[in-house]
From TrEMBL:
Keywords: Isomerase, Peroxisome. Signal peptide: none annotated. Transmembrane segments: none annotated. InterPro entries: ClpP/crotonase-like_dom_sf, ECH/Chromodomain_protein, Enoyl-CoA_hydra/iso. This is Enoyl-CoA hydratase/isomerase family protein. It is found in: Peroxisome. PANTHER family: ENOYL-COA DELTA ISOMERASE 2, PTHR43684. Its main location: other.
């Protein structure tokens, strides 16, 4: 199993469990997380979902070796749900979703916070949206959700710079609700989850539904724009240079690419 599932007092904890790969999302983990969210949404005994990672990472984002295979291997087999299925499940998830960022979070390991109702972060964790560093475009409606959550200039830096965001900076931006010492992270997140889980599930779902309803059309439009940009850039000169550099263990050099790449 690439995801651990634990139920306690109407809180379902989902733990990404590929620690040797820094919980990077391969197709199997995308599928497992999607199905776990869908199951929790439909389970009448679950009031709140708490999502975290096992080991020193929350998630290192999409598995770059699989990303490279997707662009270079004609026999590559995508999963049942994949990245887009996970984003569908997050967008549609009707119950409170709490994220506990226990370690580094790259790509979807950061943009998933846009779908969280509460996010907690370890003081030793750090976040990065490496899209420009990979020569690609934003994902997961982050081009809409992050400006909404943290303001346009903060979002521009997070999405354009491919720089690490430390915990205190994330808290100052409003990207996370609370920063905790590593040993306190899960307990603090769990305390908040328990507080919510003691409330009527119907009321929790009504609050979330009324809060997210105005965002749904904008999320769909952002995803459409992002997917088009991603499809245009993936496999292009900048993306190939980034992936080759990753495979060779060096920093990419985008300065020698043709103009506009």
């Amino acid at each position: 199993m690439s995801i651990l599932i634990d139920d306690r007092a109407r809180v379902r904890t989902l733990t990404l469990d590929r620690p040797d790969a820094l919980n990077a999302f391969d197709e199997a983990l995308y599928d497992a997380t999607t199905e776990a969210l869908r199951d929790a949404a439909e389970d009448p005994s679950v009031a709140v979902v708490l999502l975290t990672g096992n080991g020193r990472a929350f998630s290192a984002g999409t598995d770059l070796r699989e990303m490279h295979a997707r662009t270079s291997d004609p026999n590559f087999q995508p999963g049942k749900h994949g990245f887009l299925g996970l984003i569908d499940a997050l967008t549609e998830f009707p119950k409170p979703l709490i994220v506990a960022v226990n370690g580094l979070g790259l790509g979807i390991g950061t943009t998933i916070i846009g779908f969280a109702d509460l996010a907690f972060m370890s003081t030793t964790a750090k976040l990065k949206c490496p899209f420009t560093g990979l020569g690609v475009a934003p994902e997961a409606a982050s081009s809409f959700l992050l400006p909404t959550l943290i303001g346009r200039q903060n979002a521009a830096w997070v999405l354009m710079s491919s720089e690490w965001i430390r915990a205190e900076q994330a808290k100052e931006m409003g990207l996370v609700f609370q920063v905790c010492e590593p040993d306190d992270l899960l307990a603090t997140a769990r305390t908040h989850a328990d507080t919510l889980a003691a409330k009527p599930i119907s009321s929790l779902m009504a609050v979330k539904r009324t809060m997210t309803a105005p965002l749904r059309a904008e999320i769909a439009a952002a995803r459409q724009r992002e997917n088009a940009a991603f499809a245009e850039l993936m496999g292009g000169p900048a993306n190939i240079e980034a992936l080759v550099a990753f495979a060779e263990g060096r920093e990419p050099d985008f300065t020698s690419l043709p103009a506009g790449s």
